[in-house]
């Protein structure tokens, strides 16, 4: 297994994996390109892929501090930190064949290392409450993240998620997200 920075050559594989795991329309090549740009600061990327036998089997998309928009789904007044020092953990996705083996934590740690070099002190994420066996929330809790706030229907906005067909809801998404903050010590 190899963890390395996301590159343009990975866009098709990452988009395919994202749509396979989360549902059709979760990522497009264009949206991934924009997210990749948001992950770079001071020429350092906080986005990584997990490669096995020259195939992408996982990825972590993280937006650098000051490279993302704090929207209505964020609660910076509850973070106890300057929002400018906080990155955004957008997506961590693994192919089912490599889940439960610690690769998600390894991808997270690589992003944290990069964000620290970018000047970040913490990261916020909207963690999928409907993940099988509550795996997504348990993953973030194990990393040391604190619960901030639950947001119902987080991915329901048809403008923002046009064409997204949620794997759980079998159509437009009504899943909840747990806003969680991970401080870097």
UniProtKB/TrEMBL annotation:
The record ties this protein, via InterPro entries, to: Acyl_CoA_acyltransferase, GNAT_dom
Cross-referenced SUPFAM superfamilies: Acyl-CoA N-acyltransferases (Nat)
Q: Which GO terms describe its molecular function?
A: acyltransferase activity, transferring groups other than amino-acyl groups
Where's the N-acetyltransferase domain?
Answer: 1-185
What is the top-level taxon of the source organism? Bacteria
**Name listed for the protein in its UniProt record:** N-acetyltransferase domain-containing protein
Which organism is the protein's source? Shewanella gelidii
């Amino acid at each position: 297994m190899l963890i390395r920075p996301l590159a343009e050559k990975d866009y098709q594989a990452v988009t395919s994996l994202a749509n396979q795991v989360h549902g059709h329309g979760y990522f497009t090549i264009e949206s991934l390109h924009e997210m990749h740009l948001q992950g770079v600061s001071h020429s350092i990327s906080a986005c990584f892929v997990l490669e096995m036998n020259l195939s992408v089997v996982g990825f972590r998309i993280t937006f650098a501090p000051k490279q993302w928009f704090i929207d209505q789904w964020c609660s910076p007044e509850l973070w106890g930190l300057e929002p400018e020092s906080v990155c955004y953990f957008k997506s961590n996705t693994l192919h089912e064949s490599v889940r439960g083996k610690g690769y998600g934590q390894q991808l997270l740690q690589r992003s944290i290392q990069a964000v620290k070099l970018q000047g970040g002190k913490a990261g916020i994420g909207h963690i999928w409450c409907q993940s099988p066996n509550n795996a997504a929330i348990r993953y973030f809790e194990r990393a040391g993240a604190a619960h901030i706030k639950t947001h119902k229907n987080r991915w329901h906005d048809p403008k923002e998620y046009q064409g997204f067909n949620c794997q759980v809801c079998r159509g437009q998404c009504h899943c909840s997200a747990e806003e969680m903050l991970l401080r870097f010590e």
